């Protein structure tokens, strides 16, 4: 894996994950969405890795959920993480990929199934062109994906992950550390009712409002579920 770009997808088995969509659409529907989001996120990462001649791994927590994840995404290269801390999980995933010789690393979660593949490719381009780190910001104040040109645990430790303060905190830490940190065009994750409308726009082939105009990922499994 020496010098090649690497993608890491962080996930929990759908039956373990709890989402803020459950009170809105119900537990079973939220579980169904979590399953197809995971399948589409893996398909997205596989496509980007193939186009970039790179590698891709799925980092899952808890380790005991390996069978459920493997059933949903057969053939994926799975790496268990025993830590529950969001920051530490990302730090360890990045360290794992760099230890295997990755040239650049991009990490993402599985709640952005329509994230444009070309936007992730631009993230790798930013790292190759001199950025220490780069991100695809999320409309809710977080990040959809973060890329690193080298191990930078300082960008994970103590960060308020899964909050609207995340992007600002990473930006401030990068500035304090003197890092070249670049922000690409926005995309969105799927956490709230309004996000479902943005998701549908992407499935319809449209750029969701205030997001990158690049073509959204097809997200076939999600499209099939919602279309049904």
Features:
228 residues; alpha/beta; Spore Coat Polysaccharide Biosynthesis Protein SpsA, Chain A; seven-stranded mixed β-sheet; globular; Nucleotide-diphossugar_trans; Trfase_1_rSAM/seldom-assoc
Short description:
The protein is 40% helix and 16% strand.
Can you tell me the residue ranges where pLDDT is under 50 for at least 5 consecutive residues?
Answer: none
User: Class in CATH?
Assistant: Alpha Beta
Count of the separate structural domains: 1
Strand arrangement across the biggest beta sheet: 3-2-1-4-6-5-7
Taken in chain order, the helices and strands follow as EHHEHEHEHEEHEHH
Tell me, what's the shape?
globular
CATH topology: Spore Coat Polysaccharide Biosynthesis Protein SpsA, Chain A
Main beta-sheet strand count, sense and barrel state = 7 strands, mixed
Structural class: alpha/beta
Pfam family, one: DUF2064
Protein name: DUF2064 domain-containing protein
Care to describe what's here?
The protein is of the alpha/beta class and 228 residues long. The chain has a single domain, classed as Alpha-Beta Complex (Spore Coat Polysaccharide Biosynthesis Protein SpsA, Chain A), CATH 3.90.550. 40% of the residues lie in helices and 16% in strands. The chain contains eight helices and seven strands; from the N terminus they run βααβαβαβαββαβαα. It has a seven-stranded mixed beta sheet with strand order 3-2-1-4-6-5-7, with helices on both faces. Helix 3 links the parallel strand 2 and strand 3. The longest helix has 25 residues.
